[in-house]
Amino acid sequence: MNDTNESIPMGNAEWQEIVKSIPVVCDITETTAEGVVRQVLKAVFEKNGLPMDKLDDMVSTVIAHSQGSQGDIGFAAMHGFAILHGYVPGLEKLLVGIGVFQHGRSIDINAIDGSRTHIFVVIVCSSPNHAGYRQFLARLCSCLISDDMVSRLASVSTRDDLEALLSSH
User: pTM (2 decimals)?
Assistant: First the structure.
C-alpha cells in the first residue's frame, strides 16, 4: 500500500484481508506498556518475516508517537483498550497486532478515563496518510465502540476467535 489521502470507507474484502493477517497475543505476560508493545510487535515481526534487529526501533517509534504531553501513553487508552500507532517512512505494509490480557489481568497506563488497560492494538504504517490506515482505524473504532464487543474481545483466547469476532463486524 502507498501513501494517499483516501477517504473511501474500507470494504469488507479489505477488512477481512487485514483481519486475517493480524497476529494476536492472547495472554500478555508483560507488565509495562513498553513491554506489551514489544510483545505484540514481536508477534507482528514473526508473522510478517521482518528482521528482529529492527524490533527495538519499532517499539521506540510506537511508544514515542503514542506519548502524550505528560510522557505517558494513557491518552491513547480508554474503556480498557489502547490503540497505539507508529509511523516508519518507507514501510509498504499496514502492520497490526493485538494483545489481550486474560483472566481479568490488566495494567495501569494512565488512561484518560482512569480505567486499567487489558486490550492493546498496535498499528504501524508509513504515515497517517497510508492507504487503508484511516479506514482500518475507523472500522476498528466502530467495532470497539460497543461495550459488548470490548467485553467479547477481552475474552478472545485464540487467533481464530479474534478473526471470527472481527469478521462478524
Answer: 0.82
